[in-house]
Design a protein that fits this description.
This protein has 1 helix and 4 strands; from the N terminus they run E-E-H-E-E. The chain is of the alpha+beta class. Strands 2-1-3-4 form a 4-stranded antiparallel beta sheet, covered by helices on one side.
Length: 73
Amino acid sequence: MSADVTGGKYTIELCRPGGFHAGIEGTIAGEDNLGVARELYKDAIANNPDRVVLLCDRARILARSDRSETMPR
C-alpha cells in the first residue's frame, strides 16, 4: 500500500486496524473517474476484508465498507 498516492478527485482510503475511529492509515488510490473509483473501492474491500475502506470525494466520504447501505452500485 502506498500512503502517498496523489492525484484524482476520488480517493480510496484504508483505515487503521480498529476501524473508522482508529484513523486513516493511508490512501490506496486516487482517480478522477467515479466509475473507475467505485471499482477500485470494491477491489480494496475484497483485498482488505478485515479493514474499513473509504471512498472519498476530496474531504467527503461517499461510502464506507462497514456500512453496506453506502455501497456504490
